[in-house]
Design a protein that fits this description.
Layout: H1 3-8, H2 39-75, H3 96-111, H4 121-130, H5 139-152, H6 160-177, H7 182-201, H8 204-216, H9 221-242, H10 259-290, H11 299-313, H12 322-329, H13 335-354, H14 362-383, H15 391-407, H16 410-421, H17 427-444, H18 452-455, H19 475-478, E1 486-487, H20 492-500, E2 510-514, E3 520-525, H21 526-530, E4 551-552, H22 557-567, E5 571-576, E6 579-588, H23 589-604, E7 613-615, E8 636-638
Parallel strand pairs: 1-2, 4-5
Antiparallel strand pairs: 2-3, 5-6, 7-8
Helix pairs in contact: 2-5, 2-6, 2-7, 2-9, 3-5, 3-11, 5-6, 6-7, 7-8, 7-9, 8-9, 8-16, 10-13, 10-14, 10-15, 10-17, 11-13, 12-14, 13-14, 14-15, 15-16, 15-17, 16-17
Length: 640
């Protein structure tokens, strides 16, 4: 057998060798070397682009369907032209329109699929974490229709939530129709979701970041590339339909300086506290609905009563309300109008979402946060005009900080606010304010508005994304050395005698078996060696039942751990690539655990590695002291 054959076979599951070695080493099992991307990634990327084009079309269709339902419901005309419910002339009858929409959504949820309830992203997260990214096919159709009815009849939601959910369902559907792995389906689901967001707002970078922070739970090229291509494609579709103007028009900003920047950070922290309150309020309302003595099918209609009543007094709270965000960011609303919009939009959205209807969270959170940020900025500007606080920047920071605090999608929120307004001078206050909101959210809230629902069902959602520690350590560093091997021609009687001696080197649970030349034949366990049903005269080589699974000393512990799982073994002989049949160590599951000790030390042990010292001169000695009294080392004192 040639050495190059073994080394070259490191990218395969099994390595054939010469038949003359059978049954000792019919195949040298080595861990497949992981690569960043391969041909499969190209295929998934191509699928993601196709899904993105479909998601871009779905975004246009759903948006126009919402407008159509709005026209029919509030104005009695059959048209798909853009219109908001705010200008309706229905008077008190306006209360009934959202209720009718709630009844229809409740019926669709009960007799179609209960999965259409909610704002979509938590449900997609649950499918990723628990169901191998398999979303039922009917959701692809029922979710956008139910959302169009709920929003078109006055529901205080954004269109982006259902579009994101529908794009994710479309990606999952494609992944189920074709032969894909669970990881590939997750990538397609995330690609569809990112495409939906990008197609709605024209924000491809923030769409990718949102997918990473809320759906992928990883940052790897094989998943990032398809998602990024999907977001770029969907943005191109949006431009083709509606042009390249930013989603939210906003006058150009001036660069904030000094105390103003610190003020925006404090503003972000205050909005972060509000985000914690908003999240808890939504789930408190949801808990209240759980105690109602009626079937959940009627909950959306009950919640819609609040929507209709609030909409009667404040028509601007009805529907998507993207125009409200435009006015807030342009400082076109008075402070009184922003206070009213913030409070009433929150009440309407909180009750409606808690009732389990179909709708999104992004636009309502942006509206509430933007209005709150604008009000706070106006208060500071009135109290301290010399600080140079800009109401528009305050609203921008409030908008992004609210979503950051509620979802903890920090980077997505910052970049989203920039992409949708094209105001680069807002990036610095955005980063500071959103970071403060993120800090407050992490301190005071265990789960987020996206994860609380599924966390209550026992689903653990990753909240941190760190480099795999095992992927940073080579096997040769962690393996046990020197290797304690057994000769293939030894008898069990001889080996058992050494084990019975309780020598430390024979306390292992597995031993590599080598021939007269020291070449690896296989691995046997302590249980096999001590099995009383095996004759003492039996040779050790006769216990070898399968080809050896080996690992190279320059492989990573992650590759070794994955190889253990695939092979169903708890220990691997370690070999050098230059001598792939000569064991130089053993790697066990215990070695993998011990390797984590350094990681825990880095987390838990605080050390001081530098200390600064200054020399302090002694005062001059009195004349009567002798010169000998001045001898000795100079005294020092620590200042750090």
């Amino acid at each position: 057998m040639q050495i190059d054959d073994v080394v070259g076979g490191a990218t395969t599951d099994a390595l054939p060798v010469a038949p003359s070695l059978s049954p000792t080493l019919a195949a040298a099992r080595v861990p497949p070397e992981r690569v960043l991307v391969d041909g499969r990634v190209v295929f998934i990327s191509a699928l993601a682009v196709v899904i993105a084009m479909a998601a871009g079309a779905v975004a246009q269709i759903l948006t126009r369907l919402i407008w159509f339902v709005t026209n029919v419901s509030f104005y009695g005309r059959f048209s798909a032209e853009y219109v908001t419910p705010a200008a309706n002339q229905l008077g008190g009858w306006v209360v009934l329109i959202p209720v009718l929409g709630g009844i229809i959504v409740g019926l669709m949820a009960r007799y179609g699929s209960a999965a259409i309830r909610g704002h979509g992203i938590p449900e997609a997260m649950e499918q990723v974490l628990l169901n191998r990214s398999r979303i039922p096919a009917r959701i692809t159709l029922l979710k956008p229709i139910s959302a169009a009815i709920a929003i078109g009849t006055g529901g205080p939601f954004g269109a982006e939530g259902p579009i994101i959910a529908t794009g994710g369902a479309l990606g999952s559907l494609v992944g189920q129709v074709l032969r894909t792995t669970a990881a590939e389906r997750k990538t397609l689901l995330a690609a569809g979701a990112a495409a939906g967001m990008a197609a709605t707002f024209g924000s491809p970078v923030s769409a990718v970041l949102l997918a990473v922070e809320l759906l992928l739970f990883e940052f790897r090229p094989r998943s990032l590339i398809p998602v990024a291509l999907a977001a770029a494609t969907a943005t191109g579709v949006r431009i083709g339909f509606g042009g390249s103007a930013p989603a939210f028009a906003m006058p150009n900003l001036l660069q904030p300086h000094g105390v103003a920047l610190a003020t925006y950070v404090i503003l972000g922290a205050i909005v972060g506290v509000a985000a914690v309150f908003v999240t808890r309020a939504v789930y408190a309302v949801e808990d209240a609905f759980e105690h109602l003595p009626v079937h959940w099918m009627w909950w959306p209609a009950i919640g819609a009563v609040a929507v209709g009543i609030v909409g009667y007094f404040a028509p601007r709270t009805l529907g998507v309300g993207y125009d409200n965000i435009d006015h807030i960011l342009s400082a076109n609303f008075t402070v009184r109008a922003m206070v009213a919009l913030c409070i009433l939009k929150f009440v309407s959205w909180c009750v409606s979402l808690g009732s389990g209807t179909s709708g999104g969270t992004l636009a309502p959170l942006f509206t509430i946060g933007g209005a709150l940020g604008g009000v706070l900025a106006a208060g500071v500007a009135a109290a301290a005009p010399h600080l140079g606080i800009d109401l528009r920047i305050g609203a921008l920071v409030g908008m992004a900080a609210m979503f950051t605090g509620a979802s903890r999608a920090l980077l997505a929120s910052v970049v989203f606010a920039f992409e949708t307004t094209r105001q680069p001078l807002g990036l610095l206050p955005l980063l500071g304010g959103c970071s403060a909101a993120f800090l407050i959210s992490c301190l005071f809230m265990r789960n987020t508005i996206m994860t609380e629902k599924i966390a209550r069902r026992g689903v653990r959602v990753p909240g941190e994304y760190a480099a795999d520690f095992l992927d940073q350590i080579q096997v040769g560093v962690a393996a046990s050395r020197p290797v304690v091997s057994l000769s293939a021609d030894e008898t069990l009687e001889s080996v058992r005698a050494r084990i019975a001696s309780h020598a430390p080197e024979y306390a292992h649970q597995g031993f590599p078996i080598v021939d007269a030349q020291g070449l690896l034949i296989g691995v046997v366990t302590r249980r096999d060696l001590l099995d009383p049903e095996r004759a003492p005269t039996l040779r050790v080589r006769d216990l070898v039942r399968r080809p050896a699974s080996i690992v190279f000393e320059d492989s990573t512990l992650r590759e070794a751990a994955d190889h253990m799982v695939r092979e169903g073994v708890g220990r691997l002989p370690v070999v050098a690539r230059s001598s792939p049949r000569k064991p130089i160590g053993m790697l066990t599951r215990s070695d993998l655990l011990v390797a984590h000790k350094r990681r825990l030390e880095e987390l838990d042990i605080a050390e001081q590695h530098l200390a600064f010292r200054v020399r302090r001169r002694r005062p001059p000695s009195p004349p009567e002291e002798s010169a000998a009294d001045h001898q000795g080392p100079a005294r020092t004192r620590n200042i750090v």
